[in-house]
């Protein structure tokens, strides 16, 4: 259910302007109108931070909580899901640069007790990071029916348990996005350093970049600090509140809480060489066929190539896209998931969100084409990655 629901969220990032025609960042009132259109299409709340050089805009729309009607504002914390993967991959690459692990070493070297035998010899660390390991995805086994969403959110999972579920799931071929890959990568970080993944990411990334609103949520079901509620349209037709949720089921694959400002700061630092040497950043941005590198993917927009990731949890969804030089950035967050009615036709929310993203990064005032013309630029949450 989770994979199907996330894959069918499409972004309207078609050719709304000729390629390579990026203009100056649009005025704040244009961005606000584009974001208001997302709320008008049915999204309870959404916010973003748009950066163009030293200029920053922070539009917000809708409500934090549909019961109280409190308006969304700038600076809210948010479950950012699979954007966690970029930070985990950055940590792995730093360790590779320090010769504490090798990207092309078999994972059985680091986790012989957990991944023994042929699988441990065949799959490399690099294959985990670019989702070519062939290992199945544990979340497709955990979440099959709507009621499973409730059960998962009330359960605390150990990473090793998640890996065993993934290893027992049907194997995949070629590029196949699987959260199991990044749980394994997190365990390799712990085995290579002797410290917890959370402390290692904090020491290497969060603290040096002063990302004070970013942390691993883990089994604590409450988001610390101000945040939007998280909604899923339920079987009775009403939105169900999933704000209180145990995120241990994603761990290194997606249990990070952050803000739009923190994510923009992180990706700018990453893309401008503050976190990785040029050869390691080039490794990260090598995308053989799939468009997905090592915890980072490329998306083609009307005004060029952008880098980043997106993330979806049970209710919260996030997109974070950035120009190669880190000067033009957008991080967008919304408070409802699983609202699509068709696996092929984009929902009006997704069309409006796509127009907002293209406007934020490419400038001007693009207009969405008809829903029938919309197709995803990648395959993530607002496009299939998670």
What does this protein structure show overall?
It is a single chain. This protein has 386 residues and is an alpha+beta fold. The chain has a single domain, classed as DD-peptidase/beta-lactamase superfamily (Beta-lactamase), CATH 3.40.710.10. Helix content is 33%, strand content 15%. It has 13 helices and 12 strands. The strands form 3 sheets. Strands 1, 2, 3, 9, 10, 11 and 12 form a 7-stranded antiparallel β-sheet that branches. Helix 2 runs antiparallel to helix 13 and helix 8 packs across helix 9. The longest helix is centred in the middle third of the chain and has 15 residues. The protein is globular, with a radius of gyration of 19 Å. The N terminus and C terminus are likely disordered.
Explain briefly what this protein structure is.
The protein is an alpha+beta fold and 386 residues long. The chain has 13 helices and twelve strands. Strands 1, 2, 3, 9, 10, 11 and 12 form a seven-stranded antiparallel sheet that branches.
**Biggest β-sheet strands, sense, barrel:** 7 strands, antiparallel
Question: Strand fraction band?
Answer: 5-15%
CATH class: Alpha Beta
CATH topology: Beta-lactamase
Distance between the amino and carboxyl termini:
13 Å
What is the average of the pLDDT values?
A: 90
Task: Let me know the number of strands.
Answer: 12
Backbone structural class:
alpha+beta
Which features characterize this protein?
386 residues; alpha+beta; Beta-lactamase; seven-stranded antiparallel β-sheet; three-stranded antiparallel β-sheet; 13 helices; 12 strands; globular; disordered N terminus; disordered C terminus
